[in-house]
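User: Modeling request: complex.
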Amino acid sequence: MSHNTIAVNNYSPDITSDIALSSSVSFAVFGKGETSAYSNSPATGLATNDQFYFYDTTPINNITGLTFSTTNNWSTQFTLPAGQYIVQWSFHLEYTATGWYSHLNLKQSSTIVGTCAIGETSDAEQSNGWGIAYIAPTSNTTYDFELGGVANIDTVANQGTTPSEYGAFYIWKVAD
Amino acid sequence: MSHNLINVNSQSPDRVGDITAVVDPFSLAGAVSEITHGASSNNASVGDYAQIIWGAYCNSVRVTSTFDFKLADSRAIKSNNNYFMGVTLKEVGYYYVEAVMKFICTGTEYAIVQIVNASNNAVGPKAYYGEQTRQTIYPSTIHAVINNQSVNSAYYFRVQALSGTVGQPTINYGSSYFKCIKL
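Assistant: Request completed. Predicted assembly structure:
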């Protein structure tokens, strides 16, 4: 019997010589509904190509090599090492009038690698601002979130705590 | 040779002693479930926990030993035995919870839902259902990574604010599901 004589990834066989091997996923979380006025962020505007910021006082990061860049607990960008990842994000904004609309793009430099939409126009159809993207950087690569297609979005000062309370993004490492 | 001497996840070695073990990094549970609506008299109110009745598709749910669906919670404020959505996390550690829901809506209403712990403290971002100028409320995704720090802790989908007469979560528009992943 192999009981007490062998292990796989530090998992030992049980009394029937079966090793219950498990695994865990590396992940990172930024945003969990905390409250802070968007005017506390580095944002200066909410127009197309303006950066969007998420808020978290205690983000989770157990992806080796991932770094969050922050200003006053607002994420400005993140850098991932080589690997394969799924990124998910959600957001919400205050608006000024019917027909409001915005994308939120995940961008690598000027390249959009994923997007989602929120708003009231027929393009948005009340979609929920929930984005998912697969990315596979081959070396350390920096990403940020930027708005696009903006229409009738309120000012930074008038956003209140909506971006911090609704905004979050997750990063799942799915392969090396 | 290790043939027949050892197994990994119940997989035995082949003739050369190699074990092809399947290790699922996502302990996926509750991948697909149905969210249905109850009686029309049970519209949502501020402070309600989102009411979800798990239907026939529950047979396909992969429930692991690490969590339980929270049904018919004693804190339900409605009186007609509708179920209130929640989850009990049995183990310490991180869990990812995600659900797509749509609320019944006939006019200019919206609801805001958030996952909270047993003390009503938020553990994830808010999700917004509907918009005052729209006639219907479309499906929306609610989600959170929960750092569960004690065994058998309960978490709930709670209506944090609403406008107008917002009805039950409904399967209409499809894509309604709930999943809970032990990370």
